[in-house]
Specification:
The chain is an alpha/beta fold. Helix content is about 25%, strand content about 30%. Strands 1-2-3-4-5-6-7-8 form an eight-stranded mixed sheet, covered by helices on one side. It has a seven-stranded mixed sheet with strand order 9-10-11-16-17-18-19, covered by helices on one side.
Length: about 325
């Protein structure tokens, strides 16, 4: 797997999701939500390498561990801290940072970039440690697009989910990669070697000539002979939303083909009415969504504390009846 996930937190407690995407040239790091105690499972060094922190919403069980993240990153200067979330994100982060006294960091050049997402627009604001995070600097406003973040290596898109408030659901899609075909090397009687790295480097022009053994080829010709496109991996994270049959096809089309769906399963199926009242999913509903979307694997998280005397395997048994490729996070099996 080039996309590696770690579910943070324990069963029947707050959870979060930590993701590493290895492009081959760079490791991109993402944290989804920040429940109580979840950040403590990552080293300070790992927390300081996180590229983007995404909040699905700001209910207490999704932000209660944020102080630990702040403590690790308030003075980070290697790169800006990027935080994404729904409506009110700018005010939430601004007031959270301003609840502390910052009289000793006026020479710290740390920058926090806050991205607030609504169905109409994405508002970006910068906060600076050197100003004790006391000033909001508008960076820009752009029209909302379901793809909120895109680089040469990946695309991250969202859907708005219903939890009596708007909650963000996230899908991380690695872009297709060009790899060297070993079969093509054998078929064309060409050796492995350092020259192959130039074929995958977009900065190398097609007309450049390379000597391979006793033969001379252009880079463009070798690319046609040896490169094959490999689909990127995909992971989605959905939490805290009510199951809506009318939106099942929309969700399934969006998630279709994902390698991994990490999804809340707050209630067991016999508590369906309680799930509906509290705008959460039942285990069988999470499994039904995974099946409809044809994802390869479903990881169940975010179990209600009302079941804390039960075994996590009970959730897995229900899900597997509908979607056999269901799993519990590592270490959750009783």
């Amino acid at each position: 797997m080039r996309i590696e996930k770690t579910v943070l937190g324990k069963p029947f407690a707050d959870n979060a999701l930590y993701v590493r995407l290895n492009s081959g040239q760079k490791i991109h790091r993402f944290l989804f939500d920040c429940g109580e105690g979840t950040c403590n499972e990552l080293s300070i060094g790992e927390l300081q390498k996180i590229d983007h922190l995404f909040f699905s919403h700001f209910h207490l069980d999704h932000i209660a561990g944020f102080d630990h993240f702040i403590r690790a990153n308030y003075n980070r200067i290697t790169k800006p801290v990027h935080i994404w979330g729904p409506k009110t994100t700018t005010e939430v982060i601004f007031h959270r940072l301003n609840s502390f006294t910052w009289n000793l960091i006026d020479e710290v050049p740390s920058r926090w970039i806050i991205h607030e997402i609504t169905p109409q627009k994405i508002l970006t604001t910068e906060l600076r440690a050197s100003e004790a995070f006391a000033q909001k600097h508008p960076v820009g406003v752009r029209d909302f697009n379901s793809t909120i973040l895109e680089t040469a290596d990946y695309r991250l898109s969202i859907r708005f989910l219903e939890h009596r408030i708007k909650v963000l659901g996230f899908k991380l899609q690695e872009k297709a990669r060009l790899n060297i075909s070993k079969a093509a090397l054998i078929r064309n009687s060409l050796p492995e070697g350092h020259y192959l790295e130039k074929l995958k480097d977009p900065k190398v022009d097609n007309d450049q000539q390379l000597k391979v053994g006793d033969q001379i080829f252009t880079v463009g010709h070798l690319r046609k002979l040896l490169l094959e496109k490999q689909p990127g991996e995909c992971l989605a994270y959905l939490t805290d939303f009510i199951f809506q049959e009318s939106r099942l096809k929309e969700w399934a089309d969006w998630l279709n083909g994902c390698d991994e769906l990490v999804c809340e399963s707050q209630y067991l199926s016999n508590d369906r009415e309680l799930a509906r009242e509290n705008f959460h999913l039942t285990t069988d509903q999470a499994a039904k969504l995974a099946k409809e979307a044809k994802v390869k694997s479903l990881t169940l998280i975010h179990f209600s504390r009302r079941y804390q005397n039960e075994k996590p395997d009970l959730f897995l048994e229900e899900a597997n009846k509908i979607f056999p490729a269901s799993h519990l996070p590592e270490g959750w099996n009783s």
